[in-house]
């Protein structure tokens, strides 16, 4: 069911989150392109981005344009890669975040994203974050219209509750294919949403699956059980964390952010790491 819902994207695998390549502390473009190419060469078929993944004012869509450029210069078959982007969350350029869930805005934002990505229709478009000033059904209704108009091929939501998943799927006439929520060893508040997606057969895409840009490097130090299991398998704690998330349900597709080829190459190998049932239980209880 999921295989059909997300096209050729393989569930039970690892995607690539593009955010670290475009916000504060971003690397040079050449290294970012090498990172994206390394991910694609390793078999990644889903790349996640958003129009709000940028650092400065006046560069909305920086990450979308970066990913589009990397796909154009990649030697493989770019048509096999699903680019998922988002709208409704904005960065004024001062480091803050704002919201705009108005349907008319989301429709224009989606068309602008398609232009930056260089596509006739966006593969997967997701409503980035609920706007308390706009009824949720109205925001998601924009995605329904975009689907019907052919501007996007698939629709998803992000930062959503169980109730919002139900509401979005109803508004979309059962066409909701993905939910992108924060989930990691340190942040498990979205476990109910993960389980609900598993019941419905909807892809669950954990963002910051390693704890986020600032905390990912210390994952093994903060979560000793993950370090212990990593030593037993002679792999990194990061690979264990991603393998654990994959083991929770067959709808999970983590999207770790990366800014170096080495880090995404390590992450991708999590799909081949087989944890025992006892290890998964220990990690879940940690």
Description:
The model has no long low-confidence stretch (mean pLDDT 94). The longest helix is centred in the middle third of the chain and has 15 residues, at 103-117. The chain is an alpha/beta fold and 286 residues long. It has a single domain, classed as TIM Barrel. It contains 12 helices and 9 strands. The strands form 2 sheets. Strands 1-2-3-6-7-8-9 form a 7-stranded parallel β-sheet, covered by helices on one side. A two-stranded antiparallel sheet has the order 4-5. Helix 2 (29-41) runs parallel beside helix 11 and helix 4 (103-117) crosses helix 5. A hairpin with a 7-residue loop joins strand 4 and strand 5. The protein has helices spanning 2-5, 29-41, 62-73, 103-117, 136-149, 162-171, 191-200, 219-222, 224-233, 237-248, 261-268, 277-285, and strands at residues 16-17, 46-48, 82-87, 89-90, 98-99, 124-127, 155-158, 176-180, 203-204.
Any descriptors?
286 residues; alpha/beta; TIM Barrel; two-stranded antiparallel sheet
């Amino acid at each position: 069911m999921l295989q059909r819902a997300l096209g050729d994207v393989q569930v039970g695998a690892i995607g690539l989150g593009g955010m670290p390549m475009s916000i504060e502390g971003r690397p040079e473009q050449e290294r970012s392109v090498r990172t994206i190419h390394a991910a694609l060469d390793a078999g990644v078929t889903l790349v996640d981005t958003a129009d709000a993944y940028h650092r400065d004012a006046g560069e909305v869509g920086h990450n979308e344009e970066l990913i589009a450029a990397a796909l154009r210069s990649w030697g493989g078959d770019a048509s096999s890669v699903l680019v998922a982007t988002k709208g409704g969350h904005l960065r004024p350029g001062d480091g803050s975040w704002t919201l705009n869930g108005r349907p008319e805005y989301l429709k224009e934002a989606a068309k602008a994203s398609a232009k930056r990505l260089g596509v006739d229709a966006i593969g997967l478009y997701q409503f980035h974050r609920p706007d308390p000033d706009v009824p949720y059904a109205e925001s998601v209704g924009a995605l329904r219209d975009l689907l019907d108009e052919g501007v996007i091929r698939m629709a998803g939501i992000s930062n959503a509750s169980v109730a919002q998943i139900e509401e979005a799927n109803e508004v979309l006439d059962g066409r909701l294919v993905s939910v992108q929520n924060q989930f990691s060893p340190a942040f498990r508040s979205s476990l109910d949403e993960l389980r609900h997606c598993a019941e419905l057969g909807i892809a669950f895409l954990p963002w910051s699956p390693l704890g986020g840009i600032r905390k990912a490097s210390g994952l093994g130090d903060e979560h000793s059980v993950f370090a212990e299991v990593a030593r037993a398998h002679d792999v990194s704690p990061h690979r264990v964390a991603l393998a654990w998330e994959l083991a929770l349900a067959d709808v999970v597709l983590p999207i770790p952010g990366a800014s170096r080829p080495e880090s995404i190459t390590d992450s991708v190998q999590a799909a081949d790491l087989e944890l025992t049932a006892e290890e998964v239980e220990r990690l879940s209880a940690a």
